[in-house]
């Protein structure tokens, strides 16, 4: 099992392999990158990047397609700080957070579950997205044409 302080990251937007922030923030700093899926979640269009929202019992969602990223040895703390900065995450529940960083169960392509950090939309903005946001069909931002 992973050390809770050094969980891998589940990325689903601009940090996925082949996307702009993967090149800027992750290239050369990872030990492993593998396809993964976060069940019972929804993905919404954002201003050039997506918003992930945790599903509810009434609306579990199709899940979110992404990648599981494991930091290269010796890179974890710096990578965590860099991703927190990119995702505008300060601390749990901080009112200035664009995303909350939370541990969730992610599924590898082979069906194996793994606990990973996920940057998801805080409750207030998530409720607004559920009311008036534009869902990304199938939960795959990279397969969705950007307007």
UniProtKB/TrEMBL annotation:
InterPro entries noted in UniProt: AIG2-like_dom (IPR009288), GGCT-like (IPR013024), GGCT-like_sf (IPR036568)
Q: In what residue span(s) does the Gamma-glutamylcyclotransferase AIG2-like domain sit?
A: 9-142
What Pfam families does this protein's entry cite?
Answer: GGACT
- The highest taxon in the source lineage is Bacteria
What name has this protein been given in UniProt?
Gamma-glutamylcyclotransferase
């Amino acid at each position: 099992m992973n050390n809770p302080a050094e969980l891998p990251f589940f990325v689903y937007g601009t940090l996925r392999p082949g996307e702009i922030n993967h090149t800027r923030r992750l290239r050369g700093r990872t030990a492993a990158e593998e396809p993964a899926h976060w069940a019972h979640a929804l993905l919404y269009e954002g201003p050039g990047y997506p918003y992930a929202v945790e599903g509810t019992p009434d609306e579990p969602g199709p899940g979110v397609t992404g990648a599981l990223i494991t930091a290269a040895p010796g890179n974890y703390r710096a990578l965590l700080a860099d991703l927190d900065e990119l995702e505008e995450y300060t601390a749990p529940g901080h009112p200035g957070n664009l995303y909350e960083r939370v541990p969730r169960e992610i599924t590898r392509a082979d069906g194996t579950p793994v606990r990973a950090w996920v940057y998801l939309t805080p409750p207030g903005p998530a409720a607004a997205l559920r009311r008036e946001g534009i869902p990304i069909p199938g939960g795959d931002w990279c397969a969705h044409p950007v307007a």
